[in-house]
Please model this.
Amino acid sequence: MNKFSFTIDKSLGNPTFARTGIIHTPHGDIKTPAFIVVGTKATVKALTPEQVKDTGAQAILANAYHLYLQPGHKIVEKAGGLSEFANWDGPTFTDSGGFQVLSLGSGYKKVISMDSDLSTNAPKSSRHAFVDDDGVNFKSVIDGSMHRFTPELSMEIQHSIGADICFAFDELTSLAETYEYQVEALNRTHRWAERSLNHFRKLNKESGRPYQALFGVLQGANHEDLRRQTAKFLGAMSFDGYGIGGAIEKSKLGEIVGWVTEELPVDKPRHLLGISEPDDMFNAVAKGIDTFDCVSPTRVARNGAVYTLDGRINLRKACYKEDFSQLDPDCDCYTCQNYSRAYLHHLLKAGERLAATLLSIHNEAFIIRLVDSMRTSIEDGSFEDYRQKWLSRYYH
Model:
């Protein structure tokens, strides 16, 4: 039975752009816009599922690549799927593994070029991922063993993991690629999208399990013609929603998102992959993005960085050693209610693991509530005014 659907509740006039809605899944509803917390290996780093829930998180996103390597997607399936395995009772997402296969395999993360004609391209001896028209060969980041992902295997992995929302297998490109290679990779991504959709629908039909949604992934870097082309091509297919991926130049993020949302079906949800900076999220929501995910809130927390309404601060700095004030006076999360900046500074300097937990609680709660407040401002019609006031204070 298909228990997945999306309804739009409110917009600022044109439902293509800033809008609120609800994504209905077998494991519950997601009120949009929403920030989706990343639990890469079926765990949000340093946090229990109960702590994640207390931040206001509605859903988590796990990583097909990492769960395939460890403990193995069949283990997750035997446990009853991601929700049972991770003790998370809400909606779940998994990405396709395409980003990790290519970004980790390149050795240069997002700046790698797969075009051998470019001087910025890493020599093949240092690369750990090799693309062909059928799929990608790659070395494991755990032990260096060789593996191969195809669209069909990615679908089987995600189907076994059992997430409510999955993503089609795509080829990650970077801003270093030539336009000619971007065209080649996009055509390959389109063929992989068709294969992903056909195989995933077959798996859904045969399993008898709760319906799993599949989102198509849009690449095309900073090129308007390619972004609009892929939005039209994938938008005509029977995907349940769409993910906007690839390396995006920060200054052009809103513009690029606008290109694709103008072409995509209005009545299907759009997810922006790997974004969590406040200005980027405001730009994306304004252009019609419904959900986001990013590892950044917990990653920067482990390094002592904390979000506040007056900007990001680094608690490792000596000026916080005797600062016994509340971490963020505008926040009522567990950390802010109970611990001072001085104590958190001490934990960081002492190398105590509790620092990662307490700062991650705050950072996740901060970003989740920010996106929640965007939803409220769309509902009451004050989004543009709220956006201007919030950003002017944060980036003062």
Summary: The chain has one domain: 5-294. Confidence is low (pLDDT under 50) at residues 107-121. The first strand starts at residue 5 and ends at 11.
